[in-house]
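Extended Data, panel c. Modelled sequence:
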Amino acid sequence: MRYLWNVSRRLVYVAVFYATLVAILFAAVVISSARPPGRPLTSESPASSWENSAKPLPGGDDIQLRLAHIFHRGGSKEDPRVFRRLDISTEDDLVAHTALTGQSFVHTVSSVNVRKPTSASWQQQQRSSPKKPMKDWLSSQNDRDDNLWLTPTGTDEYITVPNYTDPLTVLNFALMTSNTYLPLNSSRWLDMGEWNVTEGFGWDDDGVRGYVYKDGQGNIVLAYKGTSASVFGIGGGGTSARDKYNDNMMFSCCCGKAGPTWWPLCDCCGSAYKTCNATCLNAAAHYNDSYYDYAQDIFLATKQLNPDAKNVWVAGHSLGGALASLVALTNNVACFAYEAVGEVSFARRLGLLPPASQPLPADLPIYHFGNLGDPVFMGACNGPLSSCWFGGYALETKCHAGKSCVYDPDDVRAKKRLSMNGFSDWVNAVDEENGGTQVFPYARDGGVRYDAAAGWNTFDDGRDPDPDPDARANTSAAMNIRYHQINNVIRLFLQDAETVPPCIAETNCTDCEIWEYGD
């Protein structure tokens, strides 16, 4: 009898065990089916004031984007009035382009809905003021629709933007910006001759490139090429000559006058060192062959080709990221920018943002992805002995519009459980795999600390004077130009990321503090 009782009790235990196992498996299936296949679970960034304390809302299914067009806008020796388009119209074209370059041109992203930016008094005054016509310094097609984006304060209206909290979306947008650096030689370029053009400088293959990705459902991404320069690990030649001219006009404190021995690109510099005429500088922002104008022409041509598009998003890396942000401000669209130099000062000169005496709008859907090791993004690639100084680049501005989502090399090293030396060796190996960045042997790009309460702090000698270890960041590596190269960034920070850093507005950022500006 006791034997039968023991057998019965064991059968009950077995039945309970298997019932529990089935319940666990069922729950796992339900949870996994609640998110897209292959997409890692992500944690949303904390809600903050720039979103009016509202978390992003899901935007729908995944979006598969494929390359559809490539634009080239700028001058060449053969014709300084170049505006061309290359169509990737068939699957065979896409396969051939992939085989030619070794990169994929099909990318999957997701979207979220965020509150529309609220209208601000400075923008209302700007629209009603006859003294600041937006069209005087743009091509004739570049009329701005100020009613497209802004909504009255307190109104609950939403727009769809790329999912800035999803690491897969952030990665694939970065891959789209990487695609833009690939060389292109084709006899199938179409002339966009009906567009207005400006006088060209005449360098070979100069200008701005834009890659247009579409999903067939009304979603479009326009990705802009950044600076081509060996100092940034992207190779010289091609567009690098005019890239440098535009970099120095747009992102220096006063027309490329980065030091006593630097020749200015305009007549706005004062007789005293680090003095500049602000009125002259604002006028100088509307120069011939401006990459901003070129980028805007490509955006409008994309809209013209796709009049029924429901979402047009822009993206770019480095100079391309800054151009994408400026185009986003002009046309009221969302932007993903990677390792971009600070564009706020130039946007103010163009009238796209309020003057320095007024606060920046904090609710713009412009997302800057950068890392603490990149001196360009951090605004530290300037001054004697910096990499940019050696390369002839006057990149002096650091402030970004919208929000910045900043990766820390310390977090990557901790996740990979690498020593300091091991992490440095890994970074060097990644850089070599991606072609190698030209690093000047005597370059010193400084160290950096980020304190969420105090804001950005940079140090020329790489030391952190704050004794509080909790306030320190980027102890794994001093800033180095290797952390700017987009393919290095993808491998080091984005490819294995499981989350995205919180995206925070740079509300306390100031450019060119030691300069004096007069009228």
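The chain has two domains: 1-34, 35-518. This feature is highlighted in the accompanying rendering.
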